[in-house]
Q: What sequence folds into this?
């Protein structure tokens, strides 16, 4: 008889980060205060369950501003938007609430400040990701995107005396370090961020997977296919030699994955709610797992303030 899972080891920390909590609360409060519908540019966070839940409660997710009627309330997603979209939304007179993660805003502020000082930028990130589009859209030009080490050799900045590196906040810490090292090798005087742009939650979840991977036979990551940080967790486990699968929900689990694997590591990306993790635990328990053990890990206490104008009348 084949061995089925007997123990689930839960990564700590996992799931929602402060930026995701804040973004969802902004939409929640806007719905409570102004009533449905509330328009949201792009998925508020990259999670199918969260987006569908908010849709059911009256949020309408759009990509183009001309889908939003005059006088409507509009929320920008946690990933941030370009200056052009910000200006256009203001011009159209929408009531705007910005749910951009404050750690992404910090990158935008840095780009604006250094641009005034005459800097060009090299951005490490994934082409087409809304956060990358938002950051690159802070300027009309002078930001060169690199996705891997090979890209570093190809870029041609107009000048090299004033070059600065910025990164997408949800990258693999190790991959970003490798690309940053290649940038430094080609442009030795490049200015690096005072603190790494990769967010604390992304770093903490990756560190937890590194610790967990040595203790388990398989890693399951709860996260949606569009979630950058969730994808990085599954990739990291594979790089460490552990079979890993990413699932949007418990229905996607396959019993064959667990044959011959007694210890299951379980984590969740920063936009995946705990309700999905609980459902995955229940499903793996049904396959035979009898114990659930939480790893020791960093306790996250970061909380970001909400924008003005969302205080609920008591």
A:
């Amino acid at each position: 008889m084949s061995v089925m899972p007997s123990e689930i080891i839960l990564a700590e920390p996992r799931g929602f980060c402060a930026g995701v909590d804040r973004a969802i609360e902004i939409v929640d409060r806007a719905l409570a205060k102004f009533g449905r519908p509330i328009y949201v540019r792009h998925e508020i966070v990259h999670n199918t369950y969260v987006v569908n839940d908010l849709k059911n409660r009256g949020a309408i997710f759009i990509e183009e501003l001309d889908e939003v009627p005059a006088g409507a309330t509009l929320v920008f997603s946690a990933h941030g938007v370009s200056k052009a979209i910000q200006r256009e939304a203001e011009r159209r007179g929408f009531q705007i609430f910005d749910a951009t993660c404050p750690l992404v805003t910090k990158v935008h502020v840095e780009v604006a400040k250094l641009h005034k000082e005459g800097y060009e930028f090299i951005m490490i990130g994934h082409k087409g990701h809304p956060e990358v589009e938002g950051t690159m859209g802070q300027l009309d030009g002078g930001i060169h995107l690199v996705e891997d080490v090979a890209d570093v050799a190809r870029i041609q900045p107009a000048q090299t005396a004033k070059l600065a590196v910025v990164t997408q906040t949800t990258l693999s810490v190790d991959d970003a370090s490798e690309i940053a090292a290649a940038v430094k090798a080609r442009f030795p005087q490049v200015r690096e961020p005072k603190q790494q742009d990769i967010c604390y939650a992304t770093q903490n979840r990756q560190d937890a997977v590194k610790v967990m991977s040595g203790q388990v036979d398989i890693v399951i990551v709860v996260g949606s296919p569009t979630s950058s940080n969730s994808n990085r967790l599954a990739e990291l486990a594979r790089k460490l030699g552990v079979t890993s699968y990413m699932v949007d929900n418990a229905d996607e689990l396959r019993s064959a994955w667990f044959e011959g694997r007694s210890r299951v590591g379980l984590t969740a990306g920063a936009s995946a709610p705990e309700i999905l993790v609980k459902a995955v635990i229940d499903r793996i328990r049904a396959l035979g797992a009898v114990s659930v053990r939480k790893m020791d890990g960093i306790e996250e206490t970061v909380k970001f303030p909400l924008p003005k104008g969302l205080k609920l009348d008591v």
The chain has three domains: 7-16+200-294, 18-101, 103-186.
